[in-house]
Write a structure and sequence with these properties.
Elements: H1 24-33, E1 48-49, H2 61-68, H3 78-90, E2 95-99, H4 102-113, E3 119-122, H5 127-135, E4 139-142, H6 161-171, E5 179-182, H7 195-207, E6 212-215, H8 219-229, H9 238-247, E7 251-255, E8 266-270, H10 273-286, H11 297-309, H12 313-332, E9 345-349, H13 350-353, H14 363-375, E10 377-378, E11 380-382, H15 384-387, E12 402-406, H16 414-429, E13 437-441, E14 452-455
Parallel strand pairs: 1-10, 3-4, 5-6, 6-7
Antiparallel strand pairs: 2-8, 7-8, 9-12, 11-12, 13-14
Helix pairs in contact: 1-14, 2-11, 3-11, 4-5, 4-10, 8-9, 12-16, 14-16
The chain binds pyridoxal-5'-phosphate (PLP).
């Protein structure tokens, strides 16, 4: 089988969803009504939806069958025990606290351990993680070293361990409730973290008496990269790699909408009894009883089954290869993309492509609007719109201006992706015609979700 170059989807299609074809004129009207914010577009008006890989994947036949086994008992449902077993099989933490999605787990954790004067180091906080840290008055610090976005390195998601040492020494371990590692590193291009780096970070954190938590949304993709790229892991089964990552940590937050292969769900897990008690008390206040935590029994079943499927090697080989197929095709045609291609998404470098648009006129927004206008493709700005506004209301350029084309799991076929390649090439060839944007209305936090824009003439 290995002699064939084409990596096929390791599934057949069992049930289909129609895509509604639209014209450029229709999409222009939709953009205007949406205040040029793609989060405000009716999904029926989107042809290929690459806004996020979160909760947008296709569930398998076996997950839908598991949904039928959902037991909706308020307390102690069998579905809870199946979920708990599936989570602890990969992440054997003592306490598992279910939540309706990743940010609910973050909200609970940081409302217990955050607060003014505290600081949370992470290789790179995702936007909701940063917002949940900052909402408590704590500071969120990113420690991924700067990289040339186009340089090929195997583990560009790694944390700068020396920088972590410095932060702990300068700020004092007593002000740091937890050290976080986001695997894969979403804000930095979906790049993986090596086991060696995780080991080094774990050692530093533990030497200072600090717990290490994983933001493990894409743990299986990260494990696959370790298997492919890190010495000594080629023959290690993916579930064992996951368990090795977990053993280096003291807890985790998780959005099951990614590598849980589910449409909703998440959890918080840890070994510390006192912390678990504090978090469960908060859970009961905000999410629900500890054996369902904001989820229906059927959701718990879907996640449990998803956790078995996501570590299958045929699935991961197809998943990582099909993302690379899109990215490499764009790279070969001269479109600037973050290299190497990450696990769940291709990141277009809008700052490099649209050098005539300054960061504070949002080149990423301009490119994502153009992709929607021309081809009905919905991507997501990850740049100055997402990260440029500070808690005090001031604004500065984000670290990069990217457009993320996130690939929903098991959802689109190669012909959909070939269409995306054609549209991106078309837009890139006309990059000089694109203009920037200004924000006409924005909320104080997470502005990218609801801000309204106006094109600059
Ligand atoms: C790295 C990372 N952490 C946390 C989250 C938050 O998860 P959720 O969307 O389920 O709240 C996400 C979601 O995209 C993410 O990518």
């Amino acid at each position: 089988m290995d002699r064939w170059q084409t990596i096929i989807e390791p599934f057949r299609i069992h049930s289909v969803e129609p895509i509604r074809m639209t014209t450029v004129a229709e999409r222009e009207r939709a953009l205007e009504a949406a205040g040029w914010n793609l989060f405000n577009i009716h999904a029926d008006d989107v042809l290929i939806d690459l806004l996020t890989d979160s909760g947008t994947g296709a569930m398998s036949r076996d997950q839908w069958a598991a949904v039928q086994h959902g037991d909706e008992s308020y307390a102690g449902s069998p579905s809870w025990y199946r979920f708990l077993g599936a989570v602890q099989n990969l992440f054997p933490f003592k306490h598992v606290i279910p939540a309706h999605q990743g940010r609910a787990a973050e909200k609970i954790l940081f409302s217990v351990i955050g607060g003014p004067g505290k600081l949370v180091p992470n290789n790179a906080h995702f936007d909701t993680t940063r917002a949940n840290v900052e909402f408590t008055g704590a500071e969120a610090v990113d420690l991924t070293p700067p990289h040339d976005p186009h340089e090929i390195l195997p583990f560009k998601g790694d944390m700068d361990v020396a920088a972590l040492e410095r932060v702990i020494e300068e700020r004092g371990a007593e002000h740091i409730p937890v050290v976080f590692m986001t695997i894969t590193n979403n804000s930095m291009g979906g790049q993986p973290v090596s086991m060696a780096n995780l080991r080094a970070v774990s050692k530093v954190a533990h030497r200072h008496g600090l717990p290490l938590f994983l933001d493990a949304c894409r743990f299986a993709e990260n494990a696959w990269f370790i298997k492919q790229r890190e010495d000594g892991y080629a023959d290690v089964p993916v579930p064992d790699i996951v368990r090795e990552m977990a053993a280096l940590a003291d807890g985790m937050t998780m959005s099951a909408k990614k590598d849980g292969l589910a449409n909703i769900g998440g959890w918080l897990a840890m070994n510390d009894d006192a912390l678990a008690e504090g978090c469960r008390n908060m859970l009961i206040l905000t999410e629900g009883f500890p054996t369902y935590g904001g989820l229906a029994g059927r959701d718990l079943e879907a996640i449990a089954q998803g956790l078995e499927e996501v570590v299958e090697e045929d699935y991961l080989r197809y998943r990582i290869r099909s993302t690379a197929y899109l990215g490499e095709a764009l790279d070969e045609s001269g479109v600037p993309v973050i290299m190497p291609i990450g696990g769940h998404a291709v990141y277009l470098d809008a700052r490099a492509l649209l050098q005539h648009i300054p960061p504070l006129q949002y080149p990423g927004q301009s490119l994502s609007v153009a992709l929607y206008r021309e081809g009905g493709i919905r991507g997501c700005e990850i740049g100055t719109v997402m990260f440029g506004r500070h808690p005090d209301g001031t604004e500065s350029p984000g670290p990069m201006d990217l457009v993320r084309l996130a690939i929903p799991r098991r959802t689109y076929t190669q012909s959909h992706i070939d269409y995306v390649i054609e549209v991106v090439r078309y837009v890139a060839a006309r990059a000089a015609d694109l203009r920037g944007f200004r924000i006409v209305r924005e909320p104080p936090a997470l502005r990218h979700f609801t801000a309204r824009f106006e094109p600059l003439r």
